[in-house]
Amino acid sequence: WSLLILLTTANNPDVMMPAYSQTRAYGLFFASFLLVGLFFLQNLLLAQVFSSYQDEKQELLKQERRHRETLLVEAFHLLTGDQNVPEDERYLTPEIVRSLIDKLNQTHKNVRHITREQAQLIFAILDQSGDEQVDLEEFGSFVDVLRLRFERTDRPSFVELWFPETYSSDWFQSLKNMVQDKKFEWFIDFCLVLNGALVVSQTFRELTGRADVEDAEVGNGKLDTWGEAGETLFAVIYTVEMILKLWTMGFRRYCHEYKNLFDGAVTLMGIVAVGVVYYPNSISNAKLIRYIVFARILRLVRLVTNMPQFVEIGETFVNILPAAKRLLGALFCIMFLFACVGLEFFGGKINTDPSSPYSTLLSGTDFATANYYANNFNDLASGMMTLFDLLIVNNWFVLVDGFTAVTSEWYRFYFIWFYCIGVLITLNIVVAYILDNYQKHEEHVKSMGSAEQESHHFGKLGTIEDAAEVTGTQTSLKGGYEIRMDAGTYYQSGEEFRLRLGSTRLGSGRSSLEPEERTGTRRTGDEEDGGGDFLGRQLQSTQGRGENNQSMREIKEVLLQQGV
């Protein structure tokens, strides 16, 4: 039992000291045990969990891909109608695709509403051959294309729309170039650094716990100190920055970047704070500006994005969030199950009632000395908290000794099982998931150029310079578009989407979507056999099958009713 505790390092070096104090040679025994058990076997267990996780993940992805493509083949058959038509002569017309999208808009709330304009772009991207028809292989990308967002790149700003002469003037173009130049952002960042230093100097005594008496000039409703004047000056600088960006970029483009929305909100709050301070009233307090401007300093975090290592950590964190809820859900279920069992084993036995026989048994134990009475299984909530403390491992043997004192030493196996399942298996799966995502993300980023990396950070997949012709398909649209994914969706499946749709080139020099060879990633195994070849195999295996998805039948019925 002591060696098991030592394996978790919770009682190191306490368990070793009595023997080591007598003879130093005993230190070799404990050191050898830790080297083998802690540094070798536990890391070997992590490696095994990581390898099993990767194998299971690949198998699940293959099964999901096969199931997905099988359903797409069945949907294609339903939409094309006549089963007697040879396979190579089946195709979807623009009208069928638009009707399908209209049906999705009406019945599927989890699909973003698609406008007629976006529907034309979706069909054009699907129709890679440019023949105004979508065959089976092209239809295989339908679900992926639905996830795309198309944003106009040539939408005129307010100044360009209402004051074209001003917009085309040399001085306005020079101002626009200056605001969009990186040096302008560097200047604002420099102001933020100075602002941060000013706030730290003003709050230094509060931060060090030495602000016993507040200066009479601080918070008196007047801007009569150098610090308050500096905060007001910075608020003016940030206001000018916001006005210049809105003027030169336009409201839509300004709001397109989340950092501008944050900066604008804080700047507006700063303007209101300055107005409140200057205008005498019961809440006129110059410290209000400091509180508002302090939030602005959070923008300094963006300086960290200049360090690629921190960017990779941040993007990996965003990437693991969707699966984190599943892992945490599994951990919660494990803890809930053990908590329910713990209620049966230890419920009501940890208490401070002097008349209780259990209180006498706990007296004199390390559990009672540490005052761990709140860690108990008297109800489900405290049981879950106790298990969480055990999950952290620190001092877990003290908790175990308290519970075994009121029961028997055989109940140690309950805690050993929780340690094996909760710590050695579940938490190692979490570590394996983080390692896998970080490794995958790092390899993907290294395979891209600097321009692609910048687009990658904002979920940008490509651009359409002229929407009149996309992949050889003529549309009634004009102007340019950016092809994007929502940040969460992009980090989850953006790379996989590039691989599946990698062969798509949006026009001849008029548009671009990074293809597979530009990502530097190759498919292996069944992935190389995917795409059209796999769809062909699925086609052969599904011909003559009577099992079809009911929702697919409903779509077909709607299309037939509309005369498509």
From TrEMBL:
<dbReference type="InterPro" id="IPR027359">
    <property type="entry name" value="Volt_channel_dom_sf"/>
</dbReference>
<keyword id="KW-0407">Ion channel</keyword>
<dbReference type="InterPro" id="IPR044581">
    <property type="entry name" value="TPC1_plant"/>
</dbReference>
<feature type="region of interest" description="Disordered">
    <location>
        <begin position="505"/>
        <end position="552"/>
    </location>
</feature>
<dbReference type="Pfam" id="PF00520">
    <property type="entry name" value="Ion_trans"/>
</dbReference>
<comment type="similarity">
    <text>Belongs to the calcium channel alpha-1 subunit (TC 1.A.1.11) family. Two pore calcium channel subfamily.</text>
</comment>
<dbReference type="GO" id="GO:0005509">
    <property type="term" value="F:calcium ion binding"/>
</dbReference>
<feature type="transmembrane region" description="Helical">
    <location>
        <begin position="25"/>
        <end position="47"/>
    </location>
</feature>
<feature type="compositionally biased region" description="Polar residues">
    <location>
        <begin position="538"/>
        <end position="552"/>
    </location>
</feature>
<keyword id="KW-0812">Transmembrane</keyword>
<keyword id="KW-1133">Transmembrane helix</keyword>
<protein>
    <recommendedName>
        <fullName>EF-hand domain-containing protein</fullName>
    </recommendedName>
</protein>
<keyword id="KW-0472">Membrane</keyword>
<feature type="transmembrane region" description="Helical">
    <location>
        <begin position="327"/>
        <end position="346"/>
    </location>
</feature>
<feature type="domain" description="EF-hand">
    <location>
        <begin position="114"/>
        <end position="149"/>
    </location>
</feature>
<feature type="transmembrane region" description="Helical">
    <location>
        <begin position="414"/>
        <end position="435"/>
    </location>
</feature>
<dbReference type="InterPro" id="IPR005821">
    <property type="entry name" value="Ion_trans_dom"/>
</dbReference>
<keyword id="KW-0813">Transport</keyword>
<dbReference type="GO" id="GO:0005245">
    <property type="term" value="F:voltage-gated calcium channel activity"/>
</dbReference>
<comment type="subunit">
    <text>Homodimer.</text>
</comment>
<feature type="transmembrane region" description="Helical">
    <location>
        <begin position="387"/>
        <end position="408"/>
    </location>
</feature>
<feature type="transmembrane region" description="Helical">
    <location>
        <begin position="261"/>
        <end position="279"/>
    </location>
</feature>
<dbReference type="GO" id="GO:0034702">
    <property type="term" value="C:monoatomic ion channel complex"/>
</dbReference>
<feature type="compositionally biased region" description="Basic and acidic residues">
    <location>
        <begin position="513"/>
        <end position="525"/>
    </location>
</feature>
<keyword id="KW-0677">Repeat</keyword>
<feature type="transmembrane region" description="Helical">
    <location>
        <begin position="232"/>
        <end position="249"/>
    </location>
</feature>
<dbReference type="InterPro" id="IPR002048">
    <property type="entry name" value="EF_hand_dom"/>
</dbReference>
<keyword id="KW-0406">Ion transport</keyword>
<dbReference type="InterPro" id="IPR011992">
    <property type="entry name" value="EF-hand-dom_pair"/>
</dbReference>
<keyword id="KW-0106">Calcium</keyword>
<keyword id="KW-0851">Voltage-gated channel</keyword>
